[in-house]
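User: Predict the full complex structure for these chains.
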Amino acid sequence: MTRIALPILAVGAAALLVTFPIWSSAWESSRYATTILQSMLVVAILALSLDLLVGSAGMPSLGHAAYFGAGAYAAAIAGQRLGSDDLLLGLGAAVLVSAVLALAIGAVAVRAAGIFFLMLTLAFAQMVFAIAFQAADITGGSNGFSGVRRPTFVGLDFNDATALFHLVAVVFLLVLLLVWRIRSSTYGRALVGLRENERRMRALGYDTTRLKLSAFVLAGAIAGVGGALQAYSIRFVSTNDVGVARSVEAFVSVLIGGASTLLGPAIGAAVVVFIERVLDSYIPFADTVLGLVFIVFVLAARQGIVGLVRVAYARVRA
Amino acid sequence: MIETRELRREFGGIKALAGVTLTVAEGERRAIIGPNGAGKTTLFNVLTGELEPTAGEVRLAGEDVTGRRPHELARRGVARMYQRNELFDSLPARDNVAIAVAAAAGPYRPFRAPPASEIVAAEELLERVGLGGRGAVPARALSHGERRQLELAVALALRPRVLLLDEPTAGMSPAETGRITELIASLDRSLTLVIVEHDMDVVFRLAQRITVLHEGRVIAEGTPDEVRGDTLVNEVYLGKVVA
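Assistant: Here is the predicted structure of the two-chain assembly.
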């Protein structure tokens, strides 16, 4: 049954997601909800890319915002300097810059493992933050980069809020599809091999340094796409987008949703953005709530939301 | 097939290998014995590239491979069964072997699912080491004996030219020891085997020649009968075990 039902369900859910602003338009909060959902999708792209490292390959990067931010600045600056609104140019610049940055940082960082890898990625990301802060002529420094031009693509103008949401949702789905393919491929299984036993991988003839670097660059490039969409969404890039808070946001999304699961990081991102953006306007200390939620998951539910659902499902079936 | 010349390895003043010269011919089955701390595992770590020698040379099929990294040696046909299993614990036994089977083609196939032929090859290897029907069980849920069998299947999946076996029967029951010994004995005769083992029954069953290591040096080498008759060997090693 699931063989036929699952693809139909997936396509249905994807269609509902992309058309959200249309079918929810009668609802008075539709515009607000669309904005929040769009923000969730952007953070989800970042979290999905990070999970390739954290979940699949067992590489706990705490500096993943560096590539997100690099993508955001690259898309914004390319649009401004080249005077072009071409979507492919913006996304291309974002992918290129974030991949090159990840290659440079990864070449050093992947030689360390565990907590040392975590500290190195954090330190490098802080350097990127400092550069974004200092190079005010290009990035706007502490004032941020405002007036990001929204892109166009073969007759589609993403200055329209609904069109832009469609773009973000479609790119999110493409990233999800890409990550799904990668996870079920020979390459994805090799990444899991790294997480499980790097020594054995080397003894089998895998060049583990190169394999880790390739994952780091791939994850960085995908994060860069997320960054570009962020820049287009709010038409503004700030140093926050390369800051440690955003790196932590992605890391927490992965852990709350469920590391090394396909949908976990996206679900985690939705929870995190909901607490930060929606709950925050209703209750005081929303950030504290997020902290508590995180602590509960780390202590009691290491497999995240997806893991809890799986356990519950197995119980119901048994 | 494998030659070492004056191989030395020191750990902060402690000489784990103090000049080991060794020649193992192609297709030969060589046992390396010696008391704990004789340098047997250090020798294996150097032969697989996990440790660089302080001095000396390692040759593989005539090629100088001294200082090559582990994956380079693996790609040249050196496989190892570790003394303490090095498995992918949370993955099914089948995937443990499949990752080894896939190693030859490399990991950079990001969009295609692993081909069915790899899974078939993995299942065949599991069958061969006596784990038929256990393919879906995560490595960590297997018994100690089964994990040793899986460790062997993973090493064999590389189709190696040289197989280094570090105490293949460690911690096994007598029945399991008998099974894995016969399995190793039945391997292709063109495969070069180097076996570190404490169980002398296993050594005498498998080895054509025996090298005795003591304090990082070769103190004797010969056929099983010659080594058995060597007084020095009896004193430092066999005497303690056999008498």
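The first helix of chain B runs from residue 40 to 47.
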